[in-house]
Design brief:
By secondary structure, the chain is α/β, with parallel strands linked by helices. The protein is built from ten helices and 14 strands. A hairpin with a 6-residue loop joins strand 5 (about 115) and strand 6. Helix 7 crosses helix 10, helix 8 packs antiparallel against helix 9 (about 285-295) and helix 9 runs antiparallel to helix 10. It holds the Pfam family Memo. It comes from Kwoniella shivajii.
């Protein structure tokens, strides 16, 4: 299925150019020494979680979900995903992020030759990108769209840092818009051949709930219980004996406010609902359950479409595999930028999850 190109006609002539680190100096430090020190500090705080069988780096990790906000907000949470990556055996990274600034009906590829960071450039796998273009599924990003998009860029310093000066590392950035069912099906088939490569890793860029009137998102569970599978540093609490499924109000107001359930706890429960649905991505109807959750809660998970692409890929690869050969997600970090207590507050949630395939 041939998609129209959204790239400018000069893109092929500019294929060896470097994408500038346009968010350096604002969303993160443009000074290499300062940035490296910050990333090193964040990673040093990642510790094993015996209760979750998390002992980074995870040698059987195949993908991560990690946030993409400014590093002062999401950098510490993202470190938990990056610490899990088995860098010694990885040579190619597929980086999937949502399109924030330009409407995209499907999926698009970069036309740059490399991505710049204050810590050094990351070369793109231009051969793989050329092969992907030949499928007819992908369009091309304009350079301006590519450089405006932070969902891809915010992962680059972490990638360059953990892989140090490795010359054999390449990147395949994919901007995910709103692919239809047929494109999504074809995309799963195309990506499956790369999934089977042991030297290829997938990074899914996504923040979780963006709560507040400025995001046009104020859902509220007035009777939200503690999450049944608490993600650190959220502590596990015992569910009340009288537990009933919480009732969702689509728009918060003082009339529905419960003093025992501040807004941030409602957000926490809703985000954990989503994470719970992703824990077993290869199980029957996991994709449909995820889409139903998004439709019901309207949770503003900005990387929901890249996550959906990953779910579709896993469903395609593992649909006929026995249970003991199917991957599972372990969520190892959950944070909120601030704790909302009234309708004027706002926050963004940050999640790090590690997808592990059976050894």
């Amino acid at each position: 299925m041939k998609q129209p190109s959204i790239g400018d006609p000069r893109s092929r002539k500019m294929s060896h150019s470097v994408r500038e680190a346009t968010h350096a100096g604002s969303w993160y430090s443009a000074k290499a020494t300062e940035l490296s020190s910050q990333l090193k500090s964040n990673l040093s705080k990642v510790t094993p979680l015996p209760d979750l069988a998390f002992n980074p780096p995870e040698q059987n990790a195949k993908a991560v979900i990690a946030p993409h906000a400014g590093y002062s907000y999401s950098g510490p949470a993202a470190a938990w995903a990056y610490a899990s990556i088995p860098t010694d055996k990885i040579k190619r990274i597929f980086l999937l992020g949502p399109s924030h600034h330009s409407y995209l009906p499907g999926v698009a590829l970069s036309t740059f030759g490399s991505y710049g960071t204050p810590l050094g450039d990351i070369p793109l796998d231009t051969d793989t990108i050329a092969s992907l273009k030949q499928t007819g599924i992908f369009s091309e990003m304009k350079h301006s769209v590519d450089e405006d998009e932070h969902s891809l860029e915010m992962h680059l310093p972490y990638i360059r840092h953990i892989f140090k000066d490795r010359k054999d590392l390449t990147l395949v950035p994919i901007l995910v818009g709103h692919p239809n069912a047929q494109t999504s099906k074809e995309l799963s088939k195309v990506l499956a051949q790369y999934w089977s490569d042991e030297e290829t890793f997938f990074i899914i860029s996504s923040d979780f709930c963006h709560w507040g009137t400025r995001f046009s998102c104020t859902p509220y569970y007035h009777n939200a219980p503690p999450p049944p599978n608490a993600v650190p540093p959220v502590t596990q609490e015992t569910l009340p004996a009288s537990f009933e499924p919480p009732e969702l109000t689509k728009r918060f107001s003082s009339a529905v406010s419960n003093p025992d359930v501040p807004i941030w706890k409602s957000i926490q429960y809703m985000d954990h609902e989503g994470m719970d649905l992703l824990r077993y991505p290869a199980e029957f109807a996991a994709l449909e359950k995820w889409e139903a959750y998004l439709d019901e809660t309207k949770n503003t998970i900005c990387g929901r479409n890249p996550i959906t692409v990953l779910l579709g890929l896993i469903q395609h690869v593992y649909h006929d595999k026995p249970e003991d050969q199917k991957p599972t997600f372990t969520f190892v970090r959950y944070e909120q930028s601030s704790k909302c207590v009234n309708g004027k507050d706002s926050s963004v949630s940050y999640v790090s999850g590690v997808l592990k395939v059976p050894k």
